[in-house]
Amino acid sequence: MLTWVMYDIAKDRIRNKVVKSCEKSGIxxxxxxxxxxxxxxxxxxxxxxxxxDLIDSEVDRVYIFPMCREDFNACVLxxxxxxxxxxxxxxxxxxx
Length: 96
What we know:
By secondary structure, this protein is α+β, with helices and mostly antiparallel strands. It has helices at residues 12-25, 41-54, 69-73, 89-95, and strands at residues 2-8, 28-31, 34-38, 61-67. The longest helix is centred in the N-terminal third of the chain and has 14 residues, at 12-25.
């Protein structure tokens, strides 16, 4: 299923580790703190566990939103919804 990962993480070192974890999970960066990609339930659980171990739950915020294709197609993207320098062909294919 399509999965959004969004975060606001205070410390650069921790944020960089979360970035690496997102990259390793196979999702794609669409904005600086927003990722999108296909993940199954096991992959989502694994990423969640990794991120939970990294962040400071008193300060940091992370959102993981699984979404079916029908709901994704109903999303409204306004203006420059994705950072053109970050978006990949894989994400462009999801938008078609």
